Amino acid sequence: MSINSKNTYIIEAIPVSQKVSISIDEELLKIIDAERGDVPRSKYIENAIRSAGSFFEALWIFSDEFDGLTKIERWGSSHASQPIGKPLHTHEGYISISDHSLRFYDSKMELLFSLERNSVRSINTSYDDVFRRFRDSRGFIPPQRIELEDKTLYLYTRPIGKKKIRGGGIFKGDNESVVIWFQNRLTI
Prior knowledge:
Strand order of the largest sheet: 6-5-4-3-9-8-7
Number of domains: 2
CATH topology of the largest domain: PH-domain like
Distance between the termini: 26 Å
Number of helices: 5
Radius of gyration: 19 Å
Order of helices and strands: EEHHEHEEEEEEHH
Structural class: alpha+beta
Shape: elongated
CATH architecture of the largest domain: Roll
Strand content: 25-35%
Largest sheet: 7 strands, antiparallel
């Protein structure tokens, strides 16, 4: 971390590991310093951004992609899925939640697509006739189903930086932040 005379700090951006500069109001900086204890300022700010509930690692598959899966892919996924492995998916990357959209990024942080709130018909956490329990997973953790006009997106997420099984490292189908966003109560 470096500092200049205008209180501009260099911290790591999330989720890309690169250095960026941000300006922080001095009053906010006083609050950060009062709250952070022995934690370095840049680490405290990074942790605050991570815990804000707006950025997640994500795995997803669309309903129209199930027909292209082989029996081996389905069998392998159902036997190696949660809680140890990853659930059935064809895409891996990140999502960010903004006021009006869910933005999906690949592993290189290139924007793939964005879902506007008004394009989503419903959000549920459950299996259905397409993504079936025990055929497509071990049945422990159902996907978050985001129903669109012409297809369904099955989503699993976990907080960025969580790799261990303990402490939130498992990909989950139930993401309260996505549900709150859909219900129009999330303001970022």
